[in-house]
TrEMBL record:
The name this protein goes by in its record: Phosphoenolpyruvate-protein phosphotransferase
KW Magnesium (keyword) present: yes
PANTHER family hit by this protein: PHOSPHOENOLPYRUVATE-PROTEIN PHOSPHOTRANSFERASE
Organism: Stenotrophobium rhamnosiphilum
This protein's encoding gene: ptsP
Family to which the UniProt record says this protein belongs: Belongs to the PEP-utilizing enzyme family.
GO biological process: phosphoenolpyruvate-dependent sugar phosphotransferase system
Amino acid sequence: MSLWLSGIGVSRGIAIARVQKMHGGDLEVPEYTLPEVEIEQEVSRFYGAQRKARDQLRAVRQQIPGGTPGEIAAFIDTHLLMMEDRSLTEAVVALIREHSINAEAALRRQRDALVAVFEQMDDPYLRTRKDDVDHVVARIQRILLKSERQIAPKTEGAEPFIMVSDDITPADIILLSQQNVAAFITEYGGPLSHTAILARSLGIPAIVGLRDARKLLRENETVIVDGEAGHVLADPDAKALDFYLRKQEHQAQYRRDLVKLKGKAAISQDGIKIHLLANIELLEDAAEAVANGAEGIGLYRTEFLYMNRKGLPSEEEQYEAYSRIVAAVQGPITIRTLDLGADKQVDSGRSNGPTPNNPALGLRAIRLCLKEPELFRVQVRALLRASAHGKVQIMLPMISNLQELRQSQQIIESSREELRNEGYKVADEVPIGTMIEVPAAAIAAPMLARHSRFFSIGTNDLIQYTLAIDRVDDEVNYLYDPLHPAVLRLIHMTIEAGIQAGIPVAMCGEMAGDPRYTRLLLGLGLTEFSMHPANVLEIKRIIIESNIGELKRKVKQLLTSLDPVEMRDLIDGLDA
């Protein structure tokens, strides 16, 4: 009899294949006291496991095929750096010596300490980087415990399979992608997990957060995975198989048709030009953005320059990094200033002071930069110097009032004068914009627009702050609703304020790259979308097929509705 299961669909596509389980999930870590004469031998055992784990990752790194998206190699590089990070290695050795305990127990203690720091982070994307710690620690633990996972080498003519596991590391995903894997199902993880990000990059259907999947799905049984809906159908009947086979072929043809749009402009049926930009983090992402037809960069995140290190990045180091990105992009590039909080300074920077009870509402982003202006000034100087090499815009995150905006602008302007007096080249014009991700900023948008050169709506935080929920928290993330009337009205207020002030309004949150919301956003008046490079072509297709004037008429009616059911029906009708 068929079994229907639901998880979180994080990478679209239909897969039909047999189940293969990856065993060896949760590790049982023993803890015991060592006699003094064995302590240094235990330290050597830990270093040996660390070296073996590092060599394994390097071997995986060498197996990444040419042309693979840069972010995939970047995950492995991040893990290699963590293998060498003193906050992991030296701390474990210190615990072994100080407490006379075995390496496995010391590694578990340090893992718990590091994860606790990441769990305090307010940014959902960065908080999920605790996965890096877990994956690196688990690899070393498996070597210490002699329980390493084995991925069988690919055999000629092997059938596709659907991997079911508790979680999957980036290294495992890279190896499995070369072993004819058709889809991933994991018991843990969310939309921002490594599995989700890498599966989307590789175009492999994936479902995460499907609890007890390893118990409910049998080895070698045929299952259907719908990565968009988040559904798994085990032991399907002939009628279900036929339906999903036809759906699978339809999606394959759809993807083939998208490629034809690469050189085509994003112009609607009624002649309105829409600008499609990309969100990036690494230099390699810029090449992918260009390849997918993005006109520029709508969000370049700079936080990774500050993480997994002891000291702060220097002005020169930041200048080199920004200059490489700017030189690689022909169109405009919007660089967001540091969006870290006091709780995230464990790797580099300030480490004093109590951990905030609620870091999402504490000292973070522009608040931190204004409280520690030298931290901000170093980055601003590097950004202004990089502006001499291309079309740079500076975006300020988490602005909640005009005073913060004006104070930030003053620091940027004084830094410009300093650089010119020192003989550095700086672009004549570097637009400074406001990121609208706090409800207060959306409500005050008419005032902020008078002092900003552009807006960019960060829907991820805007939705969370508006609805008072954390989408990374499994207990409440079902309340995360981009279509909540309050969220839609705040987005509309922001766009209208930009139109009235004559400044461009972009959106760089996940809504911008989600085809379910494209017509709605067009109807709200959005003309600049910034997203993951892989989503550009699909959003372009929807724009080309849309009549924006007609969408605006429908959305105007939607915004005046006071009935949630009617609003949902009107939203569904936008696709008709």
